[in-house]
Amino acid sequence: MAENKTQATTQSVSDFINAIAHPTRQADALALDKMFRQVTGWVPQMWGPSIIGYGSYHYTYDSGRSGDFLATGFSPRKSNMSIYIMPGYADFSGILARLGKHKTGKSCLYLNKLEDVDVDVLADLVRAGLKDLKGKWPVQAT
Q1: In the predicted model, is pLDDT for residue 10 greater than 70?
Q2: For 50, which of 19, 22, 80, 97 is 20 to 30 Å away at the CA?
Q3: CA–CA gap between residue 91 and residue 47 (Å, rounded)
Q4: What percent of the chain has pLDDT over 90?
């Protein structure tokens, strides 16, 4: 079976954030890093070239496919800030309703800029996502 395309790396998180050219995106990344560290108590790790992850988990699906992935994190993309909540947002409609301006994908929350949302509500969402993930797979600190 093929490995996950996105793997943990040894790239420096601070070097990655410091290299973000757009000043608002860089400031948002610094603020998100602080919030994720406070919520999780974990040191971040780069996953692939552009995802900052906190914690990890090992999964094995019914199909037999298994692998490791970040427990939660974010990526400061050019078009938006992507927040990763595993395994998804199905049970978080109450929190999302209080969050502010956002869009969702299967396991991604998309923000144009951090000022569009309530950061305390975002922290609640990260906590809820980790609690949900821990109910499905063992989560390890990074």
Answers
A1: yes
A2: 97
A3: 26
A4: 77
